[in-house]
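Quick log. Single chain, no ligands specified.
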Amino acid sequence: MSGDEPADARADRAPDEQRGYDAGPRELSERAMYRLLTGLVVPRPIAWVSTRAPDGGANVAPHSYYNVVSSDPPVVHFTSVGVKDTLSNVRANGEFVINVVSADLLEAMNVTAADLPAGENELAWAGLETAPAATVSAPRVAAAKAHLECTVRGVLSVGNGHMVLGDVGHVHVAGEVVDGGRVDQAALRAVGRLSGSGYTIVDDVVERARPSWQDLRRPR
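-> predicted structure:
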């Protein structure tokens, strides 16, 4: 093997674009696998996580490896890829707030995704105000229409990912996005993550009632 060959000589893309991919992780580079996973597991909800640093400063950053673990008890999770300020803060004080990203906050959320120098504040650069949470020291993003206040249940590290499990201790949802006791998706217009620099907005909702066994057996 040539000394000039990169350490990771696995394929960075499909060997035959017409046929697509048919390979395992041992045959693909880390970058290729990342592109495949983030391009296929879509759309992904965004956890816009606000935390409180040990020095008292506020931090907010988006994480798109995010979902519900359980509704009873209410538990959610998000994953930090690498050790970032969000992960360091939740490990230090065990608290965080997930702020829901609506379409009107997409640009501000994107600003908070930037890798800023030490001492710079994402909230200030994004022009965001904070509001006190009801049960945790981490602040809410005031402009967000919904918030989940969480305490850390545990952190599971797998590879370069650190999954934070959070017990939801308080939920705030603005009245403008509530209809009949449910979240009005058309009013919320939540933002989802795609691959690369892509995002999607929940504007087109298709409803289908789940069929029962009896429904499936009826003649059509």
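Confidence is low (pLDDT under 50) at residues 1-7.
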